[in-house]
Automatic annotation (TrEMBL):
May be involved in 20S pre-rRNA processing. InterPro entries: Pre-rRNA_process_TSR2. Pfam families: WGG. Belongs to the TSR2 family. Keywords: Coiled coil, rRNA processing. It comes from the Eukaryota. Residues 49-119 form a coiled coil. The lineage of its organism: Eukaryota, Metazoa, Chordata, Craniata, Vertebrata. This is Pre-rRNA-processing protein TSR2 homolog. GO terms for biological process: rRNA processing.
Length: 123
């Protein structure tokens, strides 16, 4: 991974958090007490920082392993590749200094989470 400035690293961390917080499989695992999502955000962020030129299948394997080993959860709903793709895409945008796009995607994901929370509370 090309080195990111500390402010860009913080934005990437926010992006990872936003993606994971809107991933239903992870939220179900967290809601059932299988672990904490913040730990997974940090683990993914460090993985990207510590490894250059990651392949998408490596990232998908890592996320799958984290879900299985730390949350005792298998994401068999087909959402894992989508999560991996979102995280990799936002990393690439951060590397290319396309920070406005990343901020907009984070904003959309936060709105999606708020909408999910609202709809889950309706009768």
């Amino acid at each position: 991974m090309a080195p990111l400035a500390s402010s860009t690293r913080e934005l990437f961390t926010e992006a990872v958090r936003a993606v994971l917080e809107t991933w239903p499989v992870l939220q179900i695992a967290v809601d059932n007490g299988f672990g904490g999502a913040e730990w997974m955000v940090d683990a993914l962020r460090l993985y990207f920082i510590d490894n250059d030129e990651l392949q998408q299948d490596e990232v998908e394997d890592l996320i799958s392993d984290l879900m299985n080993n730390e949350f005792d959860t298998v994401a068999d709903d087909g959402s894992l590749p989508q999560v991996e793709q979102q995280v990799c895409e936002m990393l690439q945008q951060c590397q290319q200094d396309r920070l406005k796009e990343v901020r907009e995607q984070i904003k959309q994901l936060i709105q999606k989470k708020m909408d999910q929370n609202l709809s889950s509370k309706l009768p």
